[in-house]
Amino acid sequence: MLIVNLNIRGLGGGTKTRYLRQLIVGEGAEFVSLQETKTTNFTEGRCFALWGDNRIGWVHNEGDNGGGRLLSMWHKEAFCYESHVMGKGFIVIVGQHLCSKRRCVIANIYSSCTLKDKKILWEELTSIKAASQESV
Hints:
Blueprint: E1 3-7, H1 14-27, E2 31-35, H2 44-51, E3 56-61, E4 70-75, E5 79-87, E6 90-97, E7 102-109, H3 115-134
Parallel strand pairs: 1-2
Antiparallel strand pairs: 2-4, 3-4, 5-6, 6-7
């Protein structure tokens, strides 16, 4: 599976949208994880415009006090979404890569700069991982 992971530092202008779309199309991305989108309202239309296709799924985490906004998108012909878990600074998406028939767990993470918050984030992610392994 080809995954694009990018700290976009804001999606406000058309230049970054064009760059992202060219990257997705040019590389044949199947899943995209963006950090620091700095965008509060994502719509299907906005996500379709970013990808350049309307056969996509997406999940947006609005972050905390305007920081750490995350967006995860996938092409529905490459990845079959099952579920997601969201928390402060992360989105974890569970699904299946359709070509390989393998189950995937993909984490989109934007960590706080403070050590205390980083420890909380990684403890939460560790517990999510442990819980997912118990359910298999």
